[in-house]
Each structure stands twice: as structure tokens, then as C-alpha cells.
Amino acid sequence: MREIIYITGTDTDVGKTMATAALAATLAARGASVAVYKPTQTGVPPGGHGDMDEVARLAGVAVVREGVRLRHPMAPVAAALREHRRLPSLAEHVDHISELAAVHSHVLIEGAGGLLVELDGQWHTVADLAGATREVARTAVVVVCRSGLGTLNHTELTVEALQSRGLPVPALVIGSWPSAPSEIELSNRDHLHALDAAFLGSLPEGASKLDPHDFRRLAPHWLALPGWA
Q1: In this structure, what is the dihedral angle of CA atoms 186, 150, 76, 4, given to the nearest 10 degrees?
Q2: Is residue 229 part of a domain?
Q3: Which residues are part of the catalytic machinery?
Q4: What residue numbers does the annotated binding site for substrate cover?
Q5: What is the C-alpha R_g of the chain?
Q6: Catalytic center at which residues (predicted)?
Q7: Cβ–Cβ under 8 Å, residues 45 and 29
């Protein structure tokens, strides 16, 4: 069964790229054929090291793609306006994803910022993209959340937004788990476990600093995937 897995977040800088890399490494370790696509990459100059470069480095996935790369570290529409660039349309993103899904068992889509960040200047978001590719392959959604104060509200708002659009009940990942968690963080994790969503696990703080060999070896121990390979 081919599957498209969307990795979105409760906010920006919550650990989506690390979660994408860990998911890719875990699926690849199970023998899955994995490709990764990011519709919009902002804040990286041409030739710079972007999120997809980091996923390829850590997870060892050979097929990584970007819909567009923009220099300014802003939301996609604002960044494109500053550069006088055209953003890919929703249909173009669907075409790219469909091409990848035709030859790979699992296609991971890393969003930009949170779930409802606009991708194309036509008010389409990652949520809309996930809805548009449901006919291409089975769809799953992973929400990456913070460990600290405020994460419960942000996570439940994101889950509610997904469910209100008829998208699958998401799975949850804590994007960065400290080596010495506070009482608040431990309580938050317990609460996230209790939500009506699969809790896949927590990525250790500093995972990006690991040697790629160690990252690939450890990633399957961080995440408990619900039969995605």
C-alpha cells in the first residue's frame, strides 16, 4: 500500500525536519522505498543547506525534492513577494507528489511552518494539499509539537483543524525532548499520550548533531510507527 505522510507542526521551529528525517530513516530501515518533498523552502539562498539537504544527510534518503526555494526566512507568500517569484500552484505540488508516489512506497511531505500557512498565494495550505492527494495514495498526517508550556493548546488546535477538514486523525511526535525534562514537560507528554491521536514518540534534544550513522541506527528506537511499512 502506497502512502503519503504529511509532517506538519504546531508552529515553526518545532522539529519538523528532524521528525521527517527520523521517519524517513525508520521507514527505510524497514525496507520501504522513501522519497521526501517540501513544497516551499524559505530562508535559504540558492546553493545553501536547506531542510531537504538535512533530511538527506541524516536519513540517507536519495530522493528529496523542493517545490521552490526562497531566500527570506518568512512565510512563503511574503518571501516570494520580496523576490518577485511565482509560487508553485496546488496542482503543481500534487503533480510532483504523484510522480514520487508512482515509484516509491512512502512519500513524506514536510510542511512550512504550521498547518495553515499559505503555500501558493491562492490561500491553499498544507491541509488543502493533504486533501488534494487523498486520491493518489493513502494519506497520513504527523503533527510535530513542542514539549513545553503552550504545546497542549497548539497541538489540540492543530488536531481539531485537521479533523474539521475530514483529514485522518493525526499521529503526534514531540520534536525535541530534553535530557532533563521539567515537571511541566512530563505532564504535557502524559496529556499528549491521552489525546485521540497516536503518540509516536519523542526525538531527543540535539538529534541533529548526531553522526548520520548513529542517527539512522537510533531513529527506529525513537518512533513507534503504526504499520507504515
Answers
A1: 40
A2: no
A3: 38
A4: 42
A5: 16
A6: 38
A7: no
